[in-house]
Transcriptional regulator, LacI family
Amino acid sequence: MAEKDTKKGRATIKDVAELAQTSVATVSRVLGDSGYGVTAQLRKRVLAAAEALSYVPSAAAQKLRGGGSRDIGLVIPNITNPFYMQTIQGISAVCYDRNYHIILCNSARSVERERAFLEQLYARQVQGVILSSADEEHSSVADFLSRGMKFVQLDQRFEREECACINYDSELGARMAVRHLAEKGHRRIAFASTPLTRWTRKAVLKGYREEMAEQGFQDEAAGLVFISEPVEAVESGSYEMDAGCSVAQQILERRADVTAVFCVNDMVAFGVIAELRRSGVRIPEDLSVVGFDDIPFAESFMPPITTIRCPSYETGRLAAMMLIDQLGDGSKSLNLNMSLQPILIERQSVRDLRGQAE
């Protein structure tokens, strides 16, 4: 079959019909795997024409035929945070294997942006979204659930049966961090965090307070919680590191007697360490630091950071599988609510004070 010379760009279904010398309706039936009323010879001619023209059916047409799309929305608060970058990799791996496409949206921690993105995804007939929400009230999720959209909430807790959630036992992780510091002889352990606008941060603080009490450090814990100032939408990737710098300044000004700082995540820990160094404080000789998440840079930082590992890549994989299950394209073998266990990773940012005067 002679190849048609199309100089107008992407070939259309009409071009295929003309080259195959048949109707648009027939081409649509053949390419849509509905061969009713089409002879084998004509089918072969249509497929050859489509191949010759490198014809690709439009996504919009496929949605109309299939009643939906193979697009999955992914809305996260900060695409520059390595924790979310690893999560995206896990989601992407599953979506590639299952022939789903990801539409990535960065809410920059803005509830308004988050809702606007969800509206856009709904308008595009996206049937499922993996969401790390900036909205404490989950009002947008409740709204879109009522419209039939499927969700998997990342590192959040939302008490509705129809909304799947995957998170970490953040309270346990915090208790592990404080217990580790206590075992190394620390009592005056500060807590450093960005604003407590997310369930996970509140859970980490709760675990910190519970373990401080369990260790008998209630008096020491008084006045040792340091929270950075709130901000609106955040475009800068340095937001959490900047928050860590700010908190470190507060600690030096108000509680220079602390021997260790437990940070709500590794990015905050990076900022804390950077600011302490600028002030002449040595890590861990003068002050110990523990992070949370175990992002890739935590191991190569100087010093390598002791932290609580949360398996972000595996979280992404499981989130994608949970959503695809809900969309009817999976094994239906996963629970709709999962909590992954944290692991203490010991490195070189904690000094052992046992047998020494603090």
In short: The chain has three domains: 13-65, 71-168+312-341, 170-310. Residues 82-98 form the longest helix (17 residues). The CA atoms of residues 79 and 85 lie 6 Å apart.
